[in-house]
Amino acid sequence: MQSNIDTAMTKMTSSLSLDTTGITPLSGEITDVQYGSIPGGAVGTIVTLQFMLQGCLDELVRPLTYHADVQNDRVTFYVTAFNAHKKASETTACFVAPQTSEQVFVRDKKFARDQVQVVFLSQPSQ
Predict the structure, then answer these.
(1) Which residue, 103, 104, 36, is CA-closest to 69?
(2) Cβ(46)–Cβ(110) under 8 Å?
(3) In whole angstroms, what is the distance from residue 104 CA to residue 96 CA?
(4) CA 124 to CA 5: how far, in whole Å?
(5) In a 3-state reduction of DSSP, which class is residue 39?
(6) Alpha helix locations (H) across the chain?
(7) Which domain holds residue 115?
(8) DSSP summary character for residue 32
(9) pLDDT digit string (tens) for 68-125?
């Protein structure tokens, strides 16, 4: 039997533009947790994640791949996020590191900030 995350991953595709020179795993941080409407018209907990990109013109590869593991009164999101390196970033200087955000959600559950954890996958060991 195929797991839900495997099924979700086979349905998702990301396309990289021709000026992408590589990708690197990213980690981020939670900036907001709220309960509200989610895609498909249902309700659930929406978690906003903030990412610092590695180059001035780099992009976050979308959509993010994630899995929400609900255990009792807590949820852990397992997220794989990638920075898409752009050729133009090699010769562009920026005054402030570029940031972007993306949302992940869990349907039909309401969690407070202290009940939400995010684990970023594909990060090098420290």
Answers:
(1) 104
(2) no
(3) 26
(4) 22
(5) coil
(6) 4-11
(7) 4-120
(8) E
(9) 999 999 999 999 999 999 999 999 999 998 999 999 999 999 999 999 999 999 755 5
Instruction: Answer whether residue 91 is part of any domain.
Output: yes
Q: How many domains does the chain have?
A: 1
Q: What is the pLDDT of residues 27-53, one digit of tens each?
A: 999 999 999 998 789 999 999 999 999
In a domain, 16, yes or no: yes
> Does the residue 126 lie in any domain?
no
Strands (E), the chain: 20-26, 28-37, 43-52, 59-60, 65-71, 74-86, 99-107, 116-120
The answer to the question of residue 66 being in a domain is: yes
0.90 exceeded by pTM: no
Which of 104, 102, 106, 105 has its CA nearest to residue 83? 102
Structure tokens at 111: 């969690």
Determine the length of the chain: 126
